[in-house]
Write a structure and sequence with these properties.
single chain, alpha/beta, 7 strands, 10% strand, globular
């Protein structure tokens, strides 16, 4: 008897995260330009690492409060209030999560009943599609390719008209991964108006909020400003503080919603390690300049990358420069020439071509730029 045939049938619709397999595969290719996972080219700031090590030395290695340590919850509340003007109660409206990935899982799982629809603008990072399937719902791709990859009120309304009362959630990632589109506050306000007073949750993934280069990006546009009562805010430390391996993030929502989210979070992961939370608190309290220090370097690299790639393709320059366009170079940009970008090891030609097709993210769109081979 094959026991795997008797497991939950919804899992048959859930693929593994092949983008991580692809990312580690590319590391075996010398001189490769990595356009894979969102991994900053910086290390965690020294003062943040020192705070984590000091916490371990002080035996901060036992269970943490499930919602988060008081210090980190307070720091998150202060930081969110400063950025978006919304004060979340540290004790009742914030949860510290094991990365935004866990926050997204908790959010989708908590709001989805069997048959519910979660609208996911594409291209997108793959977690929301899988989370909806795991929860017994259906992720419906909202194709933004015909609206210049921007989520518009008209586009959302067309899907609401089609799926009606089945729609339970709308994912709004801003700035967007992988396109790098950064919507301004007016655009987000217009999106909020479409779902306002409807039984639809907005899952606002703002993990890239401090690594955007569009005009007004420093004003932190957020749908929380226009629709806090229906929004579950997700954010974290992986991108802005180069803490991808620490697995620490947070989610914010009104108390009645957070109470339900807490049930999923608590039974799924129990808590986030205390010393990790201490390091994250240090990042927020004493590292406000850390993201700003990264921005000029990543911005210059992104501009060079986009200008160069569009020049080779015979396309005009563009003004929007997203963090998600950044390649990760084994050599410096000044030493990287066009020939190094277009040269691919012949002995890896077939597996490389196959690997590049592993992670489609929407109809006719791929998360990765296929190198010419």
């Amino acid at each position: 008897m094959k026991m795997e045939e008797h497991m939950r049938t919804d899992l048959k619709r859930v693929p593994t995260m092949k983008i991580f397999d692809f990312a580690f595969f590319t590391k075996s290719i010398e001189g490769i330009v990595e356009l894979t996972i969102g991994e900053p080219d910086f290390n965690t700031p020294e003062h943040v690492k020192e705070a984590g090590m000091a916490a371990i030395a002080n035996n901060r290695t036992h269970y943490a409060p499930q919602r988060g340590t008081a210090g980190l919850l307070s720091a998150i509340s202060d930081d969110v209030a400063k950025k978006v003007g919304k004060v979340y109660d540290p004790a009742t409206e914030i949860l510290v999560t094991n990365g935004v990935t866990e926050g997204a899982y908790a959010a989708v799982t908590a709001i989805t009943n069997p048959g519910d629809v979660i609208l996911v603008p594409t291209p997108t990072f793959s977690i929301y599609m899988a989370d909806a399937a795991i929860a017994g719902g259906t992720a419906v791709e909202v194709d933004t390719s015909k609206t210049n990859f921007r989520l518009t009120p008209e586009l959302i309304q067309s899907y609401l008209d089609e799926y009606g009362d089945r729609v339970k959630g709308l994912v709004v990632v801003n700035p967007t991964n992988p396109t790098g589109i950064a919507m301004n506050q007016d655009e987000l306000d217009a999106i909020a108006d479409v779902v306002r007073d409807k039984p639809i949750f907005v899952i606002a993934d703002e993990i890239y909020d401090q690594l955007a280069y569009t005009e007004g990006a420093d004003q932190y546009p957020s749908i929380v400003k226009s629709l806090p009562e229906q929004t579950i805010l997700l954010n974290g430390f992986s991108k802005s503080y180069a803490m991808t391996g620490w697995r620490v993030a947070y989610m914010c929502a009104p108390k009645p919603i957070t109470d339900e989210l807490f049930k999923v979070h608590g039974f799924a992961v129990t808590d986030v390690a205390t010393f990790v939370q201490d390091a994250a608190e240090e990042a927020l309290r004493n590292g406000q300049e850390d993201p700003a220090a990264m921005r000029p370097s990543t911005g210059n690299a992104a501009t060079s990358c986009i200008k160069g790639s569009r020049s080779w393709a015979g396309k005009p320059p563009i003004r929007r420069v997203p963090f998600t366009s950044l390649p990760r170079f084994r050599t410096t940009w000044n030493k990287t020439t066009r020939s190094s970008l277009t040269t691919w090891p012949k002995r890896r030609r077939s597996p490389s071509r196959q690997a590049l097709t592993l992670a489609p993210v929407g109809k006719g769109t791929s998360a990765s730029l296929t190198p010419p081979i």
